Amino acid sequence: MKKKLLSLSLVSALVLSTGAVAGAQPAVPTAAAAPAGTEDDSAEPVTQESLQALRSQLEEQLYEAQELQKKLNAQLDSLNKRVSKVEKKTDQPRVDIHGYGRFRWDKQHFEDFKGIDMKSVWLNLFINHRINDRWSLHSEHEFENNLSNNHGAYEGDGGYDKDGGKKYSRPVLQLYAEGHVGEVDVKLGRFYLQSPYKFTFDEKVDGWQASYGVPTHWGRKAMFTLNSGNTYSKILYGDRDNKLDVWAEGGSTNFRVLSLISEIPVAKNTNLTSHYGKMTRRDDHMTRETISVGLDTKLNRDLKLSAAFAKSDSDTLNKSHFLQLQYKEAKPDVPGSFDVYVKKYLQRGHTGMTNWFNDDIIDPTCGDYSKELNDRNPGNPWDHRAGEFNGLRIGADFVPVRNTKLLLHYTYGKLGLFDAGQGRLTGRKDDYSFFRAQWEVYF
Q: What is the tens place of the pLDDT at every residue in 416-425?
């Protein structure tokens, strides 16, 4: 009986507690729902004017967003320019100095004439000054010291051929301004001019140069270069029409050159080259013209063929050619890289517009070592003057460590002797050989 009463009291307590919780719930809104079929007076009607106002607001917001985007783009461009200036100062400093040194051993051998054995050290410094984004100033400074006789760059003012002279000093080899005028590259001052393959012109010019490139299908530009200025030449040495200094084997700086060079890609790895040059002696306006054409092509990835032919309007010694085959390429920034090559020459003096022969090939009377050769061979050196070289060069280049290069080559053949007074070959040929070992260091 007591258990029944206890159970009834527990049930009653649960019922009462449940009712209390229910009474604590939020009150239900008393507003009645609008009858079906009637409109809510609090909602604004959608009209054309309201849509137009909403469109105007959206357009104003879009305009503000575009203006903000422009400001952000301008700030981003300004930041990029500042970053570019910082990078340029780091990667392209306003003043840049670099160069290379050479340790050279030359051994020249002549038939029936004592040769020469010369050791020398060279230093070439290049200084580039960036004026602005379009113009820059460049200079090259060359110094040589002959280790065989201890004559060099820092000697007295005795003269070119005197003891203590500055024979080996060329403190300012080049000095020119370089820039752009529209799409044309321009040089003004004293600069080095080299025809394709250094075949017919290899000398400094005091004047101007203008170069223009035309895009081609092969991804490389066809380049056309016009040059004019004063220069040095031996082209009238032994020329029949030369009435002033036909015996002047040393050449003269009294020449003016007009030169047009073209280098045109005609295939992926093939270029055609040409050079027209006109030399004018300023004293009497005597002129000589030379035309050369050439070709270089890669036969495969590692094998390159180069060839050229030249002819001048001189009566004699007026045709030259060369043919070179090279395997691989020695690159100073790639340790272990190398190349080997063979070069066939037929050089005649009146086709070279500046040098009598190319690639440091000399005869006993006309070259860098003529004074030393004459000192070693008392008598008449003119019996050995040559107007032609016909022979071969075999060479190899190797990069033992980065930024260095070892060069070795051996040249041999026949020097065709000539009579400078008559301007013709005599028919006699002397044996000739030339060995060079050279180590170059770049910095």
A: 999 988 888 9
